[in-house]
Fold Maelstrom.
Amino acid sequence: MPPKRKTQKANGFMMFMIEMRPRLEADGHNFPGGLMDVHPVCTPLWNNLTTEQKAVYNQRAKGGPLIKEEKLDTRGVPLAWKEREEQKKIIEKTQIFQKIEDLVSYLHSQERLESHYFHLAHFNIAVSTDEGEHPPCEMAIVKFSLLDGIAKSIHEFVNPGKLRLGYAYEAGLLSEKTHKIPACGFKLANDNYVAITNNIKRMLRQEDGGYAPLFFVDEDRVKAIYILNWLIEKSYELDNEYDRSNPFSTYSLNKLFFELRRYADLNDPRLRLTSTSQASEYFGNGMFQFSPNMACQWHEEEDNVTFCSLTKVKNYAYTISDMCCEHYDLALLPNRHVPANIADEDQYVVLPKVNKTQDKQTPVKKYEDDDDEVSLKTVPRLPNTFSKVVMKSVGSRVAANFDGKSEGPHSVVSGTGRGILARGSSGAFLSEPITPGPSQERTPTPTGKGRGRGVMLAMDSDLSD
């Protein structure tokens, strides 16, 4: 009688392979030989685990030789694993939201919220694969504050590299349906990934040596995380001495919009959006996307401005300005807070300069696209002056307008923040500056009919004069 074959006890690596097999199969891998075929694929993954992570699987294997079968879905993915992944996503989202709440609360307490710069970003992709790949083909980032609007922007076409086999057709369909950027052979595409990544780092670098977070709309965050890692890896492939650690962090732009709107007046519940989903709706409306000078030159020539990454980020900034600046009593700057065709210079009234004590904690600087810094210390900003933009719809466009009948602080039309002249009912400029009033005590104005969601009409009491 032949000796009985000993039953091999499960070890930590075997538990790891059993857990990884359905996930790998869901990603397109085939293992006709069972765990023997899983072994070479999982070995490098196992070696990358920390000692603590391996200990979890080793402890799981101590139960004995029998391995309890897990319930799987139709694709062979363990249901318990799917539940854990969903729970991780919920926890991660909650943590990110809390970070944004803490950031905005801190800036508000330091009276720096209006002057703080946030970086709003968007990536266009060549294709999305079943393996979770999202190679980029275009990127744009704007540096934005409530006080100064868009202070700086960068835009770049990115070479997505060689696509995974079998996805060329899908990439062509996506391109034709959206951004029109060819997935391969595009002459404007930049494959110097080191320069692209370093350009992003320069824009985000802070005085303490860290990097500011990038804000993406919620539906783009997963792609953005992949792309930022992708850029780091591509840079390392070009230069083996390049730092492979990823310094970038991605935050929710929807949540930021929600908090900026709320902190305009914490005592006024009417300013609070119903949810971050409502913020997404405002971004999706794209009320500014057809304005001049929104898209890059190539998309302008292709007559496809709506899907340009530069259009996307400018629309984010203009939408936030439209919905928030009015309630912070901030002046709107043409081409910074609103497109120039809306904020026409001839339709703005400028007040004499008002000497105002500058906030020592947050000196305001203007950043031009050529990376030169121009100090605005000699140009007083008015973060707390009365300002009012009265808008009305003109066809498919929206133009700035104001009523000459109204007077007083509510008749002031937002200018550049460098000073706004008031015009009386007779049309003559007032010689005396309008003194800033306490924002907390003024009566909230009713919602206007212009651009709709953030622009206010003058008070009824003013219009009835």
Summary: Residues 345-465 have pLDDT under 50 and may be disordered. The chain has three domains: 12-77, 88-311, 329-465. Strands lie at 118-125, 136-145, 149-157, 214-216, 250-252, 365-367, 373-375, 390-394, 397-401.
